[in-house]
């Protein structure tokens, strides 16, 4: 039998936490009031957190604290102090995204257990190796991995591996989404995502509208049919998403997964492919759907890419389950006549789809059901009934969905209302003449307590105290978190004590064990003294002196074929790795004395990885260095080419504080691009390490999403990946939102991966003087769809701005033209 896998549940509130524990979660992940990726959940203050820890630990469950957002320099001291306090409370592990925070926590609390958040974009063994060097104990894999990739990773690392199995699926690879941040100022990397992926869009080709819908809104994933494969594959933890969901949702989903995970373990040999399978009942499948779904569930990427099958184009919110259709509406009574294909009860919630796109659907909680002119509390499949209260326009034949089931919600709430979960313990009870009786309790963690009575046993005069009665009384653990599975009795014949005395002994022992168990999980951060701690004293390395002479780099997300780089006013050029291979045009760029770097994106799993490994050596002979979008790309380069190749980390690594910059340098990077989510004050105040090439993006359409889903193949071609006939290359495609903003979509045909670029260019030429007095060495200009003339003019403009030259009338007109076409100052003035 394989080691038992962990079922990991979400909790955004204390009730949701109870729902998770009482329905069989082995561990719960939750957020405090500081630095977690669900800032709009209820979250836990210190008192609630300690209460939850004590409750979980006495019931054989663990708690992982989410500190999975990026941390600003100004927040780092508070973050480390908060983590130290939570560690001492007994938090079992910390889920972290920020590289600098992870480095500080490991340095200051070496014993701390760190889990790498899925926000760190880990999808390969190379990425895992990079994080292992940072001291992580567990990796939460990217949700885009398929079953074979997960199995391969589990077989190649000693670190714990966690995989999502149920809940919302981000269309963007986690950690690589800047869309909410760039268009609305609410950063997903800072826990405030506004979910622009759940908004309606139309897709355009060369300006022509090809259709609309919720084009980048995926269905939720459900892997309950594949628990056996994941367990057999070596995954440590199965993770359910949902810290924004209700306690009833948590209860229903966790309870269902607990049931089928336990069924997997009923087999004797989990490694035998012929056993361990389980069939999910229709009742349980319906329970999961009724709890929450968006047009049913998908397998996500678990069995490979599926394209449109994984998307919820019609509606982005909970669909519920099909209930029936509309026959007639009576507006005078706010009633609708329905034909049912499922049961409907008083208090259930329904929604009627009018058929009109992007409009709210009429519905609500049902307060009245009339069948054959009689009020009923419940109607059955096949019935035709009037329901109230329904306001708004309803069309005949419209589909009706049951969005909530009152009876199911009540059943779910009942599962966690009384606290029935117990921890199994053993007991020894001694009752001897001439001695006070003693009850000893032991748990599975080695904790042992003893409670003594106050009265000596007497010889029974009338009715003796039987062993059966003693066992019965001792096993009455009531509201305690314990259940005695085995009791050893050592009692003298006919010895008797009052039942009240026996009960007092039992209660005292249980209370002692509960307190001892709680205290056993408390820790001390041995190297951390909050009274004298000042994080600045731990800052590594020397800080770079300010140099006002900045260099200019230009990144081309598409290779600019035919472009003459001779007069381009830049010092460094970044070109796509796959376009550099065998490109003779590089010679002409080198002749201009410009540096040429090969750009490798943040996500390169699949065919791209093989292409990279195969061609690295040859490409390295024609470039001066590499721009790596992820630690995984860095690991591959170092493994293939050694330690002497310059490697700049891209902004997709999400470097937002000085500590992360220093850690990047320690890992072996020669430079790093700081996050696009910092404001000028934060950029100015950062401590830039000496002998480290730092860079800042100041112009261009920033990539705001990287996705394994291709909107072109999915919503235009309506086909599975790699079956669109290179549709993405036959025209310029853009997603247009409700306000008319257009987001360029670029797809590759290597792995059918897509990148969505911001609608407006990042442009703040008036801040050039401020940028010149920061520790930044390079400013970066990003080009994706500009003309060659525009590229030249923009490079010249920034050359003049940074050279403190006078701006010509032509350049003033260029600035006006760029601003008129749509621009954003990004976060330079506001930050996140």
Mean pLDDT: 93
Would you identify the regions where 5 or more consecutive residues have pLDDT less than 50? none
* Percent in helix: 25-40%
Number of strands: 42
The strands making up the biggest β-sheet line up spatially as 1-2-3-4-5-6-7-11
Structural class: alpha/beta
Proportion of strand residues? 15-25%
Termini separation: 48 Å
Radius of gyration: 31 Å
**Continuous helix count:** 23
Model description:
The protein is of the alpha/beta class. The chain is 28% helix and 24% strand. It has 23 helices and 42 strands. Strands 1-2-3-4-5-6-7-11 form an 8-stranded parallel β-barrel, surrounded by 6 helices. An 8-stranded antiparallel beta sheet has the order 17-16-22-13-14-21-18-19. It has an 8-stranded parallel beta barrel with strand order 29-30-31-32-33-34-35-41. Strand 34, helix 19 and strand 35 (693-700) form a beta-alpha-beta unit. The longest helix has 22 residues, at 499-520. It is globular and about 110 Å long. The model has no long low-confidence stretch (mean pLDDT 93).
């Amino acid at each position: 039998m394989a080691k038992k896998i962990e079922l990991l549940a979400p909790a955004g509130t204390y009730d949701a936490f109870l729902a998770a524990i009482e329905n069989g979660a082995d561990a719960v992940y939750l957020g405090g009031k500081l630095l977690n990726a669900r800032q709009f959940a209820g979250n836990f203050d210190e008192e609630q957190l300690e209460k939850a820890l004590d409750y979980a630990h006495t019931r054989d469950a663990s708690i992982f604290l989410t500190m999975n957002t990026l941390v600003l320099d100004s927040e780092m001291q508070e973050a480390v102090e908060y983590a130290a306090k939570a560690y001492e409370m007994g938090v079992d592990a910390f889920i972290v995204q920020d590289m600098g925070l992870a480095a500080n926590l490991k340095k200051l609390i070496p014993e701390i257990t760190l889990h790498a958040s899925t926000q760190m974009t880990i999808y390969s063994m190379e990425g895992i190796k990079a994080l292992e060097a940072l001291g992580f104990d567990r990796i939460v894999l990217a949700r885009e991995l398929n079953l074979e990739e997960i199995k391969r990773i589990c077989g190649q690392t000693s670190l714990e591996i966690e995989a999502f199995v149920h809940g919302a699926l981000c269309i963007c690879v986690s950690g690589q989404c800047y869309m909410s941040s760039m268009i609305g100022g609410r950063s997903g990397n800072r826990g405030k995502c506004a979910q622009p992926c759940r908004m309606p869009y139309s897709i355009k080709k060369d300006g022509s509208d090809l259709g609309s819908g919720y084009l980048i809104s995926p269905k939720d994933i459900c892997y309950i049919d594949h628990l056996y494969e994941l367990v057999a594959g070596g995954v440590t933890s199965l993770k359910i998403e949902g810290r924004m969901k209700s306690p009833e949702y948590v209860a229903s989903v966790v309870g269902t997964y607990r049931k089928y995970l336990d069924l997997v373990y009923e087999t004797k040999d989990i490694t035998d492919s012929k056993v361990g399978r389980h069939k999910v009942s229709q009742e349980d499948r319906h329970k999961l759907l009724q709890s929450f779904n968006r047009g049913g569930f998908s397998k996500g990427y678990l069995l490979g890419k599926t394209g449109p099958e994984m998307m919820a184009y019609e509606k982005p919110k909970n669909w519920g389950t099909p209930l029936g259709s509309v026959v007639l509406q009576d507006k005078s009574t706010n009633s609708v006549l329905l034909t049912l294909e499922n049961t409907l009860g008083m208090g259930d919630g329904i929604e009627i789809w009018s058929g009109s796109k992007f409009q709210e659907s009429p519905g609500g909680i049902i307060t009245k059901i009339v069948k054959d002119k009689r009020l009923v509390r419940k109607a059955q499949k096949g019935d035709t009934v009037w329901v109230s209260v329904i306001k708004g326009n309803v069309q005949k034949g419209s589909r009706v969905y049951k969005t909530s089931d009152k009876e199911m919600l009540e059943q779910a709430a009942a599962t966690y209302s009384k606290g029935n979960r117990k921890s199994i313990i053993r007991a020894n009870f001694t009752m001897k003449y001439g001695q006070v009786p003693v009850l000893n309790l032991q748990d599975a963690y080695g904790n042992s307590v003893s409670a003594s009575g106050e009265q000596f046993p007497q010889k029974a005069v009338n009715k003796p105290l039987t062993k059966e009665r003693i066992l019965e009384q001792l096993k009455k653990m009531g509201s305690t978190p314990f259940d005695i599975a085995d009791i050893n009795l050592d009692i003298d014949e006919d010895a008797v004590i009052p039942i009240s005395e026996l009960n007092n002994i039992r209660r005292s022992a249980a209370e002692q064990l509960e307190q001892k168990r709680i205290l056993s999980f408390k820790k001390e951060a041995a190297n951390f003294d909050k009274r004298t701690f000042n994080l600045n004293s731990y800052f590594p390395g020397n800080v770079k002196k300010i140099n006002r002479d900045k260099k200019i780099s230009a990144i081309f997300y598409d290779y600019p074929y035919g472009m003459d780089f001779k007069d381009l006013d830049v010092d460094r050029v970044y070109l796509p790795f796959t376009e550099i291979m065998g490109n003779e045009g590089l010679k002409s760029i080198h002749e201009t004395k410009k540096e040429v770097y090969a750009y490798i994106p943040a996500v390169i799993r699949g065919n791209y990885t093989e292409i990279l490994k195969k061609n690295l050596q040859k490409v390295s002979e024609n470039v001066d260095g590499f721009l790596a979008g992820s630690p995984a790309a860095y690991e591959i380069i170092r493994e293939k080419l050694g330690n002497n190749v310059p490697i700049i980390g891209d902004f997709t690594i999400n470097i937002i504080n000085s500590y992360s910059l220093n850690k990047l340098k320690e890992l072996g990077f020669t430079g790093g691009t700081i996050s696009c989510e910092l404001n000028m004050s934060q950029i100015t105040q950062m401590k830039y390490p000496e002998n480290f090439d730092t860079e800042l993006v100041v112009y261009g359409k920033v990539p705001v999403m990287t996705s394994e889903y291709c909107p072109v193949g999915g919503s235009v071609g309506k086909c599975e990946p790699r079956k669109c006939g290179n549709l993405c290359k036959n025209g310029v495609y853009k997603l247009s939102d409700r306000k008319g903003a257009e987001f360029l979509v670029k797809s590759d045909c290597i792995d059918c991966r897509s990148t969505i670029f911001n609608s407006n260019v990042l442009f703040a030429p008036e801040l050039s003087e401020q940028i010149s007095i920061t520790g930044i060495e390079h400013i970066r200009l990003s080009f994706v769809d500009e003309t060659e003339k525009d590229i030249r003019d923009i490079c010249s403009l920034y050359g003049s701005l940074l050279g403190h030259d006078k701006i010509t009338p032509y350049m003033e007109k260029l600035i006006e033209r760029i601003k008129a076409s749509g621009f954003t100052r990004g976060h330079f003035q506001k930050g996140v």
